[in-house]
């Protein structure tokens, strides 16, 4: 059985792919037309259980990884072909990650419905308690307005939605309803990406598709029509190259893949 790809990010001229496995969790690839694997990075203490997301920060020249089982954020500082490893212990359970324009780290805490902002030294500088209807928030990204776009699943009303919330955590706009496969529905939206014009790409995992929403969360269309029956669980946009990366797996769990789309 193939291990699961749990995210992808690009830092400068290298692509980093995160796998849920006990060693060599990060594979490093070139990005100059052909994607050639050049090395692997083993993250001490990460393991394969609970591995959730990966993001990169150019200013701090590092990778951040979340581990839900151990409530850790792992930090990998890159220095040439070597790496320095540290970890932050959280009092919350981290899920999706994103890097803000300030280069602070935004962590979506799934179990207690919070968005946490950390500075580069690992200090939590802001906590936003989310609306009670966002029962299981998985991933969030800050918008230019200061609001946040967030994907959330389940809850007492079985809502699978992408929402825009304000700095107080209140929902201002939303897309989706009860879980399903209709044009106005989502089923387990696990991850989001936002392009330079603030269009939102949604990894609609159980529908095996990527949904494209407008900046006001109106349905625009589908990206990468489902020809291979791939469950897409992560999406990432490298804005400098206008590339959309998706990480997916077959429904039978036998194969994982990263797809690249030039936007």
Which SSEs are present, and which pair or pack?
Blueprint: E1 5-11, E2 14-19, E3 26-30, E4 37-41, E5 51-57, E6 62-67, E7 72-79, E8 82-89, E9 94-99, E10 105-109, E11 114-118, E12 124-129, E13 136-142, E14 148-153, E15 159-165, E16 171-178, E17 189-194, E18 200-204, E19 209-213, E20 219-223, E21 230-238, E22 243-250, E23 256-262
List key phrases describing it.
2 domains, four-stranded antiparallel β-sheet, 23 strands, Neuraminidase, 56% strand, mainly beta, globular, 263 residues
Write a structural description.
The protein is mostly beta strands. The chain has 2 domains: 1-99; 130-263, Neuraminidase, CATH 2.120.10. It is built from no helices and 23 strands. It has strands at 5-11, 14-19, 26-30, 37-41, 51-57, 62-67, 72-79, 82-89, 94-99, 105-109, 114-118, 124-129, 136-142, 148-153, 159-165, 171-178, 189-194, 200-204, 209-213, 219-223, 230-238, 243-250, 256-262. Strands 1-2-3-4 form a 4-stranded antiparallel β-sheet, with no helix packed on it. A 4-stranded antiparallel β-sheet has the order 5-6-7-8, with no helix packed on it. It has a 4-stranded antiparallel β-sheet with strand order 9-10-11-12, with no helix packed on it. It is globular, with a radius of gyration of 17 Å. The protein starts with a strand and ends with a strand. The model has no long low-confidence stretch (mean pLDDT 92).
Number of strand segments: 23
Number of alpha- plus pi-helical segments:
0
Largest sheet strand order? 1-2-3-4
List SSEs in N-to-C order: EEEEEEEEEEEEEEEEEEEEEEE
Q: How many structural domains can be distinguished in the coordinates?
A: 2
Look at the structure and name the CATH superfamily of the largest domain: TolB, C-terminal domain
What proportion of the residues form beta strands (DSSP E)?
A: over 45%
Distance between the termini: 32 Å
Which regions have little confidence, pLDDT < 50, spanning 5+ residues?
none
- Radius of gyration, in Å, reads 17 Å
| General form | globular
Mean pLDDT: 92
Kindly report the CATH topology of the largest domain.
Neuraminidase
For the sheet with most strands, the description reads: 4 strands, antiparallel
Q: What is the CATH C level class of the largest domain, in words?
A: Mainly Beta
């Amino acid at each position: 059985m193939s291990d699961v790809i749990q995210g992808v990010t690009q830092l400068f001229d290298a692509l980093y792919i995160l796998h849920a496995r006990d060693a060599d969790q990060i594979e490093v690839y070139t990005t100059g037309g052909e994607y050639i694997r050049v090395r692997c990075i083993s993250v001490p203490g990460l393991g394969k259980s609970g591995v959730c997301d990966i993001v990169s920060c150019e200013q701090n020249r590092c990778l951040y990884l979340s581990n839900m089982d151990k409530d850790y954020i792992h930090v990998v500082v890159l220095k040439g072909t070597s790496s320095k490893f540290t970890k932050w212990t959280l009092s919350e359970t981290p899920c999706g990650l994103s890097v803000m324009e300030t280069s602070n780290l935004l962590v979506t805490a799934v179990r207690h419905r919070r968005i946490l902002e950390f500075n580069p030294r690992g200090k939590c500088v802001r906590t936003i308690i989310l609306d009670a209807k966002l029962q299981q928030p998985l991933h969030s990204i800050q918008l230019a307005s200061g609001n946040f776009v967030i994907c959330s699943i389940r809850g007492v009303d079985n809502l699978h939605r992408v929402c825009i919330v304000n700095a107080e955590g209140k929902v201002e706009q939303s897309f989706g309803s009860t879980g399903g496969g209709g044009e106005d529905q989502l089923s387990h939206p696990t991850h989001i990406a936002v392009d330079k014009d603030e269009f939102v790409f949604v990894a609609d995992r159980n529908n095996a598709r990527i949904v494209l929403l407008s900046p006001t969360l109106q349905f625009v269309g589908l990206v990468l029509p489902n020809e291979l029956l791939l469950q897409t669980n992560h999406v990432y946009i490298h804005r400098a190259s206008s590339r959309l990366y998706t990480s997916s797996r077959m429904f039978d769990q036998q194969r994982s893949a990263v797809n690249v789309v030039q936007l």
